[in-house]
Amino acid sequence: MKTVGQKIEAFAVTGVKPGFNQHEEQGVSAFEPVTEKSFPGKWKVIYFYPKDFTFVCPTEIVEFDKKMKDLADRGATLLGGSTDNEFSHLAWRQQHADLKGIKHPLLHVTPTMAAAFGLLQPTAEVALRATFIIDPQGVVRYASANDLSVGRNVDEVVRVLDGLQTDELCPCNWKKGDETLTAKIKKAG
């Protein structure tokens, strides 16, 4: 799996746009191209999930979506996706009450992208529940993966992003607003 300190490779995938119902009503495509360069100067939080039309995945998608404003306030873009294609993502969003209003794109993770991130679960051949925080230069600063049966803690992803953006030493359980270790060391010096 892609790990901390590595630069992400180029990718080009198709995403289901947020607000797809309005696009359909206006005769505009519900799909958009997304690449690693689509959000210049932004941090990216990219999460992968196993499959559409499952039970744990929508709980994570909704929770990530609830944190969109928090992420945007930190200069970060949110992207989610699985190895299901964009048509499956669109159908699932249309049919699942909790997903109809999500405001971030769901990406069709192509085999090339899945291989580049190293995120395929070997026996199920679906994306792991993997999360990456990527800095504006395209470098992975955080990487995490859960077993297929266990959902993530999205608050922890936001906490880690906060810590990374201080560019200081942050102790265990540090939260935004707490004093960093770097600040404590400077005071003691």
Which blocks of ≥5 consecutive residues have pLDDT under 50? none
Q: Please, how many helices?
A: 7
Structural class: alpha/beta
Strand content: 15-25%
Series of H and E elements: EHEEHHEHEHEEHH
- Mean pLDDT level: 93
Q: What is the helix fraction of residues, given as a range?
A: 25-40%
How far apart the termini lie comes to 40 Å
Task: Give a verbal description of the structure.
The protein has 189 residues and is an alpha/beta fold. It is built from seven helices and seven strands; from the N terminus they run βαββααβαβαββαα. The radius of gyration is 17 Å and the shape is globular.
What is the structure about, briefly put?
With 189 residues, the protein is α/β, with parallel strands linked by helices.
SSE order and pairing:
Blueprint: E1 12-16, H1 20-25, E2 31-35, E3 43-48, H2 56-66, H3 68-73, E4 76-82, H4 86-95, E5 106-108, H5 111-117, E6 129-134, E7 140-146, H6 154-166, H7 181-188
